[in-house]
Automatic annotation (TrEMBL):
Domain Moybdenum cofactor oxidoreductase dimerisation intervals: 444-498
Keyword Transmembrane: no
Protein name, UniProt field: Nitrate reductase
Top-level taxonomy: Eukaryota, Fungi, Dikarya, Ascomycota, Pezizomycotina
Top-level taxon of origin: Eukaryota
Biased composition (Basic and acidic residues): 117-134
Annotated organism of origin: Aspergillus sclerotialis
Keyword check for ATP-binding: no
InterPro entries tied to this protein: Ig_E-set (IPR014756), MoCF_OxRdtse_dimer (IPR005066), Mopterin_OxRdtase_euk (IPR008335), OxRdtase_Mopterin-bd_dom (IPR000572), OxRdtase_Mopterin-bd_sf (IPR036374)
Listed GO MF terms: heme binding; molybdenum ion binding; molybdopterin cofactor binding; sulfite oxidase activity
GO biological process, one term: sulfur compound metabolic process
Length: 507
């Protein structure tokens, strides 16, 4: 048998270190951030491409502004027309030259007119115009606008005198029984692809979730009661797919009670009343043009007034022994909390209102299950939704699933960070000021704010004022609302380019 002595000490000493790799690989960077193995110019082409790309990127950055364009400039017109593009510079030079030429032509005419007015003793063109108007209307006791105002006041007086007490058992005048029967193409590949939606709404946040409002003219022409197909929609996420037969609302007050939808209908007296509902982000587009907020651009159509039918919340809470809970906490302030079944970012959507407000007989807070005498559409909270008359839409929880009483305000994400107005000096939402004010009761938005919207003249409509005669009138139309229950008595209208204003009737 052969003698196998193995490797010698010298063999072992000279054996390569197999755990280590070569110092370089052709085509790979080494420790000096180079590509080794390149012997001719042009071999290191990848490094040259990267260097050239970096130089071009640095050159591009030098031309860009130091802040984000989308945050500074709010509209496309600013980028196209007001930026210092070469074509815009040429256009401004031409406009300036044209303006100077026009001024030179008009200057002799203005001087001649001023000399003529001085010779006749006219103090101003304004006095001359009103002097002519007075001579034309010398036979009338009031000018035409005052006559129209007086007539509207008489009609409104007669209407108010004929009003009767609302017993809460009315019916919606909307008799449109047609439902959308097609799935919108925009919803086909979203979680909401089971919902047939109205094609009369304008989507504002892309395909999903749905946030939409009606055309303002269509909304106004529909009348005081808004059809379901024109009522605005505000969703934070996917619409939960709930069924009437198995949906349960958990009530926790003096005791815990589980209410089915049939329980809400059969065990409690229902009321059916018109409720104006508006998102507190209504007309946010106008605010975003002044200063960007975190919300999207709602126009003036995020408002609607429909008949809502349901059981009174106070009756439901009394059935859950809320009276016993109130007696046990006689000196404490209590809140009633609500949570929806929709699963959105940062937890389920929840909020709260003072329990005293909910129990007041004058406030008619309800658990609504019908809208304009039809079951709630999925986008409006089917099968049951909290409705708080006079409050903003953010407090009217859709797809209601839980109700409970607490001795503090709701501490959910959406109650703290949504539906609030912070002072203008708070610009950093992560600052200590923001942290305190987001939880401060003074920043909370509950009641609707006073608001008025001009519908006619419509957006883009042109009125040739210079062609109008004295006896021709134009009726300005629109709507106004607030959440406190106070009557809207009048609306003041003024020109943006002049100090003259006037008051119009509300009826």
């Amino acid at each position: 048998m052969a003698d196998r002595t193995g490797a010698t000490d010298m063999d072992i000493f000279n054996e390569p270190d197999w755990a280590r790799t070569h110092g370089h690989r052709v085509g790979m960077r080494d420790k000096n951030d180079r590509y080794p193995g390149m012997t001719h110019s042009g071999d290191d082409w990848r490094y040259e491409i990267e260097q050239e790309a970096a130089e071009k990127m640095d050159e591009l950055r030098s031309w860009l502004p130091k802040e984000t364009c989308s945050l500074r400039y709010k509209d496309e017109n600013h980028i196209k027309e007001e930026q210092d593009w070469f074509i815009n510079q040429k256009k401004r030079e031409k406009e300036q030259q044209s303006h100077q030429q026009q001024q030179q032509k008009e200057q002799p005419q203005k001087q001649q007119q001023a000399e003529g007015n001085e010779a006749r003793g006219d103090s101003s063109d304004y006095d001359k115009i009103h002097k002519d108007e007075g001579s034309q209307n010398s036979g009338n006791k009031y000018p035409p606008e005052d006559q129209e105002f007086l007539q509207k006041l008489k009609e409104e007086q007669q209407y108010m005198n004929n009003l009767t007490m609302n017993d809460g058992q009315g019916r919606s005048p909307i008799d449109d029984t047609t439902y959308p029967d097609e799935i919108d193409e925009a919803d086909q590949f979203t979680p909401d692809n089971w919902i047939a939606r109205s094609d009369r709404l304008i989507r504002l946040t892309g395909k999903h979730p749905l946030n939409a409002e009606a055309n303002l003219t269509d909304l106004y022409n529909a009348g005081l009661i808004t059809p379901n197909k024109l009522h605005y929609v505000r969703n934070h996420g996917t619409v939960p797919h709930l069924l009437w037969e198995n949906h349960i609302v958990e009530i926790s007050a003096g005791k815990k009670v589980s209410m089915t939808m049939d329980d809400l209908v059969d065990k409690f007296r229902s009321i059916n009343i018109p409720i104006l509902l508006a998102c507190d982000g209504n007309r946010r587009k106008e605010l975003n043009m002044i200063r960007q907020s975190k919300g999207f651009n709602f126009g003036a159509g995020a408002v609607g007034c429909a008949y809502w039918k349901g059981a009174l919340l106070r009756d439901v809470l009394l059935a859950a022994d809320v009276g016993q809970l109130i007696q046990q906490n006689i000196n404490k302030k209590l809140w009633v909390n609500f949570e929806g079944a929709d699963e959105v970012t940062n937890g389920n959507y929840a909020t709260s209102i003072p329990l005293d407000y909910a129990m007041d007989h004058c406030h008619d807070v309800m658990l609504a299950y019908a809208m304009n005498d039809f079951p709630l559409p999925p986008d409006h909270g089917y099968p049951v939704r909290l409705m708080v008359p006079g409050y903003v839409g953010g407090r009217c929880i859709k797809w209601l699933s839980k109700v409970w009483i607490s001795d503090h305000e709701n501490d959910s994400f959406h109650h703290i960070y949504d539906n609030r107005v912070l002072p203008s000096f708070v610009t950093d939402k992560n600052s200590e000021f923001a942290d305190v004010l987001y939880r401060h009761p003074s920043t909370l938005i509950n009641e609707q704010t006073l608001n008025s919207v001009i519908v006619k003249p419509a957006h883009g409509e042109k009125i040739a004022l210079e062609d109008m005669k004295k006896d021709v009138t134009y009726r300005i139309e629109g709507f106004a609302y607030n959440g406190g229950g106070d009557e809207i008595q009048n609306v003041a209208v003024s020109s943006m380019k002049g100090p003259i204003g006037f008051t119009v009737s509300v009826g």
